[in-house]
Amino acid sequence: MARVRPKGPGIIVFLAVLGLVGYGVFMLYSRQQATGGGTGSQQQQRRQPAVTVSGFVGGEKTGFLANGKVQRILSQKYGIELDYRKAGSIDMVQGSVDGQDFVWPSNQVAEEIFRERHGNPLSAENIFNSPIVIYSWAEVVDALQAQGIVQQAASGQYEADLDELVALVDSGTKWEEIGLPQLYGRILILSTDPTRSNSGNMFAGLLANVYNGGEVAGMDSSASVVPQVREYFTRLGYLEGSSGDLFQHYIERGMGEKPLVVGYENQLIEFSIEHREHIARLREKVRIIYPRPTVWSGHPLIAITENGKRLSQALQDEELQRIAWEEHGFRSGIIGVSNDPKVLDVIGVPQDVSSVMQMPGPQLMQELIRTLGGS
Amino acid sequence: MRTLSRGIMLLLAALLLGACVDRNSGGAGSGTATGRGGSFSGVSLSIISGSENEGLEPLIQRFAADNGASISMQYKGSVDIMLELAQGSGMPYDAVWPANSLWISLGDSQRVVKHSESIMRSPVVLGVKHSVAERLGWVGSEVRVQDILDAAEAGQLRFGMTSATQSNSGASAYIGYLYAFAGQPEVLTLEQLDDPQLQDRIRRILGSVQRSSGSSGWLKDSFLERFDSLDAMVNYEALVIEANQELQRRNMETLYAVYPVDGLVIADSPLGFVSKGDSRREELFLALQEYLLSPEVQQEILAAGRRTGLLGLNPESVDRSVFNPDWGIDATRTISPIRFPAEDVLRRALDLYQVTFRKPSFTVYALDYSGSMEGEGLAEMKRAMRTLLDSELSTKYLLQPTDRDVSVVIPFDDRLLAEWVVNGNDPQALSGLLDEIEQFAGGGNTNIYAPVARGVELIRELGGSERHFPAVILLTDGQSNEGSFSVLRAALDGNGMHNVPVFSIVFGAASEEQLQEISDYTGGRVFDGKKDLVKAFRQAKGYN
Predict the structure, then answer these.
(1) What is the CA A260 to chain-centroid distance, rounded?
(2) pLDDT digit string (tens) for B245-270?
(3) Nearest CB partner across the interface for B114, out of A9, A71, A251
(4) Do A251 and B6 touch (CB under 8 A)?
(5) What are the residues facing B503 on neighbouring strands?
(6) Percentages helix, strand, coil for chain B, rounded to the nearest 5?
(7) Are B142 and B261 spatial neighbours (Cβ–Cβ below 8 Å)?
(8) What are phi and psi of A373, to 5 degrees?
(9) Which residues contact A72 (CB under 8 A, 6 or more apart)?
(10) B221: CB partners within 8 A, 6+ apart
(11) pLDDT at position A375, please?
(12) To 5 degrees, how large is the angle CA A71–CA A74–CA A78?
């Protein structure tokens, strides 16, 4: 990677966002799964008159919402026409929501900020989930398997104890020591910038848990955990600012530059569906490692008006949930809906993601962001 | 995929800028760049770009024509792009496209660049004549930077490399060497730069460079022109491909690309927007960027020898006559680069290169004081010399001398009027030299040949071509009406010094033909000082 940090927009804005993210994280993931409780009550929507529902949506879901099948179901079955704008997850809840029926960010931080700014919403339902995974390449996974670090489960997916992987990084093991002399230097797991991007932020939280002996890290462990996480990220140098960019660089530039990168599970699924012509190549070369433990990235739909709530309920439609999984790789956020990996062409995607843990407490995450931002 | 990540990028931009963007209801899924249909008529965009992108300009102009926009490209070196960026939003361009993000990072202190995205990649490699690579046992094996140093010190490898402080390919190679000699750290640190062992080895490898240059393109051209004098050059993979295509046409031996595994750097060619608050321009920029990143255009760029597209996924899809495995250029081969260090480390590394690590220069300035220079001409020449000899100005342009540099000034008209020599980089000695230059007056006719012959003779006498990069920088504004090229040539041949490059600066009514003749014979280059003499001097010095 030949970019240098930091760059991008004005430093003041950047700092403001840092503060914001920090603030958001401050009430973050402890209630990770709390919004998953809604069950379908779709039927009653049928006879309602058609409405246009307006709101802000995180960019990674625009592919789903632009899907013709999704639009048809919303319109024909629920009488909903969507008028949405892409916006940043934090931004959409931070600014004015006047005239909006809903906002649909990409993480629970945003939901917390919403409550802080605008009071409790009419409803907030977690519509989708996607676990944090580690993307890699066949040769790298083979080498890690030979070391006993990665295992292939009976159902096909690759798994690794995150603490063992991280120990490999922390001990300064060189790639050539595990039989990959063509790779430069020491083993690293790359993520996005944890102060700018949600996936990197969640990985930083996972690392904090790992350094806390596998327990959810809290303020009582900050003195030991925070310096270790900072040390980890100091070694990474420049980091991409968005999960989309990192995944794209991984696929484009390959194993030499990106042997191990952190991403969302749905990224590869959606990519492989959008690029079916590459499916054979993907199966041959690309590997997903499911770290044990991992964390969920959720997508809560925050309803501001009755129409927004109507959309929220519509999105729990079984057919829509199925499309979200089969065509866009989002696991259902709805309890009781299962996601069958057999419908996907991608290898190594498990039916269920086990070994999911909670993010560290909000104050610790805030502390982490502050420390990492200052480095 | 492209659409998805673009969406996420816009989303992040929106997040960072505190603005809700893109009223894009429902249609966010499709991402064709040219689909907006000529909607940019009257919108203009000016781009300052590295010269390695010149071959891609037709792609840009095609986009401009399709969209009714007006896009202009200005080609400059990395240092110039960095200096332009340092002006912040006051800089006279709307977008930057250097060879490497490093120059944005160093120049963009006011953080005005946004939407920066890599358009293509090209690793910086060592292109070695096939027979030499064969002899060194480098064909098909892993080569380390230490191997390059060993071969050069054993006299088995004569190689050229551009100046790390003027040209990105030289900077990249240099930083790669630092990583290798620091023992492959994840990122290079300030402490490692101070390590005496690292310093010793970096001095030695830079000291073994046989030819310097201020630009990668010129290094390639001069390598081809004087093919027998070097065994190898450090350059972009893309330029090694171009050189090989040319060598193949000439039926000559091709180069084998060596990718040092412990210190490899990839030029990432980021295209970034300089924000000045014009939203139409920003839309045009984003549309251009999306066009360049579209699968079709990426394929065209790939065909030109730059790495693009889903290379991580299917490298086998590339044209093997371009990425030719026989040349060592194999797209299926894993290219594993170093990770760039923080900005303060980069800055320190470049300073150290310029003032202590690099092979020192022995520079003879032959300055025209003939009658026609009087007035404006002399004033400008003195101003130009000030940028090279004044320590503050030379630091700004990364042209500071080392303590082992030798600077000689020979003022001339139709006679040799004086000889002033300064050893090293003592600011007082250099400013004393500047005083001499500023107070001096000449006034006769012009003989450009005698000072060149004398300069080269001085280099020989003082041993200036043994441990230094020797060069004569000749400035003149007139026709030489005395002396002749044949006399000069006889002198150069007589003392065996025709390999000392003469960099000539054309000024006023100077005869470009006469200067070209000298530069061609000596492996130098002619720079045009008619528009901007200071810049021409800076460029010429950057080659030495």
Answers:
(1) 16
(2) 999 999 999 999 999 999 999 999 99
(3) A9
(4) no
(5) B473, B525
(6) 45, 15, 40
(7) yes
(8) -65, -30
(9) none
(10) none
(11) 37
(12) 160
CA of B23: which chain A residue's CA is closest? A85
Contacts of residue B264 in chain A, CB cutoff 8 Å? Answer: 184
Task: Check if the beta carbon of residue A199 is closer than 8 Å to that of residue B12.
Answer: no
Q: What span, in angstroms and rounded, lies between the C-alpha atoms of A246 and A187?
A: 17
Each residue's pLDDT tens digit, B105-159? 889 988 899 888 899 999 999 999 999 999 999 999 989 999 999 999 999 999 9
- Residue A190 DSSP code: B
CA distance B416 to B360: 26
SS3 B472: strand
DSSP E strands in A173-240: the ranges are: none
**Which pTM value belongs to this model?**
0.81
Find the CB nearest B343 among A2, A4, A254.
Answer: A4
Nearest to A29 by CA among A211, A222, A296: A296
Q: What is the DSSP string of B163-222?
A: -TTT-HHHHHHHHHHHHHHTT--SS--HHHHT-HHHHHHHHHHHHTEEE--S-HHHHHHH
Beta carbons within 10 angstroms of residue A216's beta carbon = 18
**pLDDT of A309:** 97
How many CB atoms lie under 10 A from the CB of residue B386?
Answer: 18
How many residues are present in chain A? 375
Instruction: Kindly tell me the sign of the dihedral angle through the C-alpha atoms of B46, B47, B52, B55.
Output: negative
Query: Is-contact A320 A70, C-beta < 8 A?
Result: yes
Distance of CA A90 to CAs A16, A195, A301, B16, B264, Å? 12, 13, 14, 9, 38
Shortest distance, CA A261 to any CA of chain B (angstroms): 13
List A302's β-bridge partners, or say none.
Answer: A103, A124
Burial (CB count <10 Å: 0-12, 13-18, 19+), residue B198: buried
CA distance A177 to A184: 11
Eight-class DSSP state of A75: I
